[in-house]
Amino acid sequence: MVSKTIPVQPFDLVVFGATGDLAKRKIIPALFRRFIAGQIPDVSRILGISRQELSSKEYSVMVVDFIKEFVPANVYDQNDVVKFCKMITFLSVDLKSDKGWKELEKFFDSNSNQIRTFYLSISPSLIDSCSKKLNDYALITANTRVVVEKPLGTDLPSAKMLNDTLRRVFNEKQIFRIDHYLGKETVQNLMALRFANVLLEPLWNNNYIDHVQITVAETGDVNGRGEYYEDVGAMRDMVQNHLMQLLCLIAMEPPAHFDADDIRNEKLKVIRAIQPVDVKDTVRGQYVDGDNSFKSHVNNINSKTESFVALKAHISNWRWAGVPFYLRTGKGMSKKVSEIVIEFKPLAHSIFPDLGENYQNKLVIRLQPEEGMTLHIGVKEPGPGGMRLINAPLDMTFAQLSGQVEAIEAYERLIMDTCRGDQTLFMRGDELEAAWSWIDNIMSDWNKSNNVPIDYNIGTNGPAEAAELLTRDGRSWQ
Ligand code: BG6
């Protein structure tokens, strides 16, 4: 299979926070990889901005280090790095004063119609002053886009405030809110699976589906991000965005067109239809491991922040009434795995006792590792000896399907989409607010009921109560 890399139009990309962690780990490596893939015309310009006093040459040296650390050496050669660095310049700009803004104005003088993307990889507290300055210096053109990253608020009021701040100077079509889960290959395939095939859609409802499980488990702890994590916890860090987006893509109605707003309208309807969750249908956990516990990582022996959450949600609409969606995510777990399990209802009448009376087909959609899908079906065991049935996995790994085509990372796809102006894989403001509104209710109920996280040992599947959430319904986690 041949890769179809379609170059984007030349652009000017301005990265605010160009020396920060995200630029280092994700933004610069993603741009470099797309450049060597031939997707970025070399007349494009990448301008790094931070408060530090650096020359463009000094910043380029940093960029080379970012590439060396975060792009595998076997995918590029030195010439590529040299060519890439020719697109890079750097400016020292202060977001709270006028220092550097005139120079930024001059940077655009010669190129006023080119696509212009401002990537605000900065603390949320600076977004207001940064967007005001962009407006004051008349740097926002019709061809401008702005990219913002998590945390997109910490609750509904702060998310509204962020949306208001952005909308004062940009229109919604210019705002790209990143949830990197939407850039993952399998997430796009989820839409292909559902809406490009006749096979599953007739079964995709409460007549045939027993329940859905969404798991995003990580083995790593919060070490290094303790301060941030202590404030947010797993609910805000993962459920409000990544798990919610996965749930939406599974549950939404088919959009009329594959178009950003059609898709986001359908996702919004799902979020608005999710019922408030009862505290007894939630489990919060916090990992412990002697001195290596969550409390020590966040530097707070009294921490009541969760590093694990599991919950049962219901969607009140015709398609999903009565089908529980079990969600769980955590740090310090036994395996790193992100997957969705669709468990179908048992056969109405089983004539093959080998499979068990309540045999259920299962579709497992893996986001990582080994992106792909597995359909568990009953088949005859090969060979002689009568009719014996077994459960067999029909496996499809996307890497095999793509053959020679190199996997593309979420950030590569998402940054190229901002250049194309395609908002399909980005959250709209109303979606963001609806998701916060649902999360806020749960968190406020936790507070009211003095709910505290239950300890679980690092390297396990979270607290036993998370397993009970399903066993009491006669089910179990995949
Ligand atoms: C981020 C969270 O959004 O997603 C992190 O802030 C988490 O806490 C990460 O580790 C997980 O992303 P991935 O792509 O590794 O599953």
If strands are numbered along the chain, what order do they take across the biggest sheet?
A: 14-13-12-11-7-10-9-8-15
Q: If you compute it from the alpha carbons, what radius of gyration comes out, rounded to the nearest whole angstrom?
A: 24 Å
What fold name stands as the CATH topology of the largest domain?
Answer: Dihydrodipicolinate Reductase, domain 2
Principal-axes shape call: globular
User: How many E-type strands?
Assistant: 15
Ends apart, CA distance between termini = 33 Å
What does this entry look like structurally?
This protein has about 475 residues and is of the alpha/beta class. It has 2 domains: about 10-150, Rossmann fold (3-Layer(aba) Sandwich); about 180-405 and about 430-470, 2-Layer Sandwich (Dihydrodipicolinate Reductase, domain 2), CATH 3.30.360.10. It is built from 14 helices and 15 strands. The strands form 2 sheets. The chain has a 9-stranded mixed β-sheet, sandwiched between helices. α1 crosses α2, α5 packs parallel to α6 and α8 packs across α9 (about 260-275). The model has no long low-confidence stretch (mean pLDDT about 95). 6-O-phosphono-beta-D-glucopyranose binds near residues 150, 218, 237 and 338.
